[in-house]
From TrEMBL:
Pfam family, one: TPR_12
Matches recorded under InterPro entries: TPR-like_helical_dom_sf, TPR_rpt
Protein name: Tetratricopeptide repeat-containing protein
Length: 400
């Protein structure tokens, strides 16, 4: 009950400020920060954390003070990663590990190592991320940390997805979900069901994907956080699209955009608009699609993956009339981008369309050969394979 926690913290915070023990307000602030991270309110937490760290660092050194400082650095690392401020996140992570100097409690150490794994993943070093992930898994098993073990299985699944090992990723996630069902940890069940609803379509399991998304609904509660609602609607949109229901898919994406707009996640605000632009474009609604590309542009961050998302939809807008311009816009971004869910795959489809429009069938087939198997977007992949095998090209819309 996040609303109840919020009300309790509103009462506790002024009381904690009056406490003669300076750590009391620190612990209350920590609870406040965790609650707001869960709700997707990252910027207020960054401001609060900066103030709390300044006050804590002014206190006489003690193991309790150091542990609290590390806790706040861990929270800030997580937020900075979510905001794709990777250099700052890495700096905070290194500071936290240095402060701990091998004396951190195992739960906090595994939290920091998990953040390290996410950073490596975001930086494109999937192999190093898998190694770090294995370290966390060993620690979690040794200490009997079932919750952390489940979190690590989920993270391993994400890394395996980036390597195209979809079946193995699904197995890891299903194991993680089974653990959390036994533990009755609804927050983790939510995350794992979201990820399974994304994985199942790649295995052709659309019924299972929709069932995972629907199982998620009651776990969100009567008043889900904006972030939870946004994630659910995004997954439903992709399932509906894969099932060939573009009307339901675009409606779900509109709901996802409205929900993400109530958070500080500018990257996801941009990504949902670009995904909606894609769906609209493939339904022939090009003017509407351009509107969402224009809305997304100022929200897109500087990470290569986000730049690729934008370049892909800008290139799509050039088709079919200006295929050479589409290639020129998109190709420079491909070499800079590490594996990032379906970003590379979607870009290859637009490149395929451009090459087909130019009559370059061999180049089109080469683009499709670069799509990881199984594809995220099976119907689109199959339709373009069929087009690339023909002697003539006709611009088409693909729902899939």
């Amino acid at each position: 009950d996040t609303e109840g926690q919020q009300k309790a913290l509103e009462i506790l915070r002024p009381i904690a400020e009056q406490s003669t023990d300076p750590l009391v307000w620190g612990y209350v602030s920590l609870r406040w920060a965790r609650l707001h991270v869960h709700r997707g309110a990252y910027l207020p937490v960054l401001q609060e954390t900066a103030q709390v760290l300044e006050r804590l660092q002014a206190l006489p050194e003690s193991s309790d003070v150091t542990a609290l400082i590390v806790e706040f650095l861990a929270i800030r690392t997580d937020i900075l990663w979510r905001l794709r401020r990777l250099e700052e996140a890495e700096s905070d992570l290194k500071q936290a590990l240095a402060l701990g100097r091998g004396r951190l409690p195992v739960p906090l150490l595994t939290t920091l190592l998990t953040s390290w794994t996410y950073l490596l993943m975001e930086q494109g070093d999937v192999e190093a991320a898998l190694v770090k992930c294995a370290e966390v898994e060993v620690l979690a098993r040794q200490q009997g940390q079932q919750r952390r073990h489940a979190i690590t299985l989920n993270l391993r699944a994400r890394l395996l997805m980036l390597q195209g090992q979809v079946q193995q990723a699904t197995q890891a996630l299903e194991e993680a979900l089974a653990i959390t069902r036994l533990l009755r940890h609804a927050d983790l069940q939510k995350a794992f069901l979201l990820n399974l609803s994304q994985l199942y379509p790649r295995l052709g399991k659309l019924t299972e994907a929709e069932a995972a998304a629907e199982e998620l609904r009651p776990l969100l509660g009567p008043q889900p956080s904006a972030r939870d609602e946004a994630n659910l609607q995004e997954r439903l949109a992709k399932v509906y699209w894969a099932k060939g229901d573009p009307t339901a898919a675009t409606a779900a994406l509109h709901r996802a955009i409205a929900a993400f707009d109530r958070t500080d996640e500018r990257g996801n605000q941009a990504k949902m608009r670009l995904l909606l632009a894609r769906y609209l474009s493939q339904q022939g609604q090009r003017n509407q699609a351009q509107r969402y590309v224009d809305e997304a542009r100022p929200l897109v961050g500087q990470t290569p993956a986000q730049q690729l998302w934008l370049a892909t939809e800008e290139a799509r807008a050039c088709l079919p009339a200006q295929p050479a311009e589409a290639l020129a816009r998109l190709e420079p971004h491909l070499a800079l981008t590490a594996p990032a869910e379906d970003a590379q795959e979607t870009a290859q489809y637009v490149l395929t369309e451009a090459h087909l429009a130019l009559g370059q069938y061999e180049q089109a087939r080469q683009c499709l050969d670069r799509v990881p198997q199984p594809p995220y977007w099976m119907a689109e992949y199959a339709a373009l394979r069929d087009k690339a095998a023909r002697d003539e090209y006709e611009p088409h819309s693909t729902v899939g």
